Description:
Elements: E1 2-5, E2 9-12, E3 17-20, H1 22-32, E4 37-44, H2 47-58, E5 66-69, E6 74-80, E7 86-90, H3 101-108, E8 114-118, H4 125-134, E9 141-144, H5 154-163, E10 166-170, H6 171-180, H7 188-199, E11 203-207, E12 213-217, E13 220-224, H8 237-250, H9 255-270
Parallel strand pairs: 1-4, 1-8, 2-6, 4-5, 8-9, 9-10, 10-11
Antiparallel strand pairs: 2-3, 6-7, 11-12, 12-13
Amino acid sequence: MILSIGEVVWDIFPERSVLGGAPVNVAYHLRSLGVKVGVISRVGEDELGDRTIGAMVGLRLAVNGVQHGDLPTGRVKVTVDDQNEPHFDIVSPAAWDNINLTEAEEFIAGRPYKLVFGSLAQRDERSRRTIKALWPKAEQRFYDVNLRPPHTPREIVEESLEAADLVKVNGDELLEICRWQNLSGNERKIIARELMARYNIAVLVVTEGGDGAWLMDGDDYFQAPGVPIKVADTVGAGDAFFATLLAGQEKGLGWQECLNEATERGAYVASQTGATPPIP
C-alpha cells in the first residue's frame, strides 16, 4: 500500500471551489492507475468537512484514514495569473495541522506501506511529528518538495530531503535548494548529482513545465519532452505526474517509460479544469 499523508483542502477559485491538496490528488491518480492507496489527513467538524468526505467517496477514495477534529477544514484561495500559473493563499490554522499519530497508526494497523509526503503539511509541529514518526517504518519514502513560502522553511525541506528515497522538484525549486547549499553551475545534471550526494537521495526527478521532465537514478539520466497542450489550469498537474511515476515504479516499468507516461498525464490534467478530472 502507498500512503499519501498531508493536507486536505478546498481550493477556492473566484468562480468555484474544488477539493484539493496534493495528498488527495496523488491518491486519486494512484487509485485510477490500479495502485492500492490510503489517505491520512484531518478535516473539521464542519460543512466543508462533510463535503470533503462526500467528494472523496465520489473519487472512489477510502476515507477511513481521514481524521476529524476541532480546527476548521483546510482552505486555499487560488488565483491564476496571465501565464496560467496558480498562486495560493493557504488559510491557517486548519484541521490538517493536527494529524494525530495514534489515529494514523490505528489506520495503518501494522500493514507494510510506502509513504508519499510533502512540505506544507509539516508547517505545524503536531502534523510534522506524525509524518516524521512514519518515516522509519515506511519501506520507501517519496517526497514532493512543493515549496509554498512562508509555510515551507528551509529546515523542514532539508530534513525531508535527508529522509527521502525519491524526491520530486520543479526546476525553480531545484535551483532554490541548490542556492541554499551554494551549489552553482550551468549544467543542471551536475548540480543535481551533487545535491543527491549531499542528501543521499537515490532518485531525483525534475519537472520543467511545458518542457517536460528529467530524472536521475545514480548516474543514469532519463528525459521526456513536453506534451503540447492548451492549458486550462495547472493546479494538480504535478501531482498527477508524481502519482503516475510512482505507479509505473510499482508496476516494474523502466524509468523512461515511467517518465513518458507521467509527463503525458501531467499534461492532460493541465489541459483540464481541476486537479482530479475524469481520465479517459
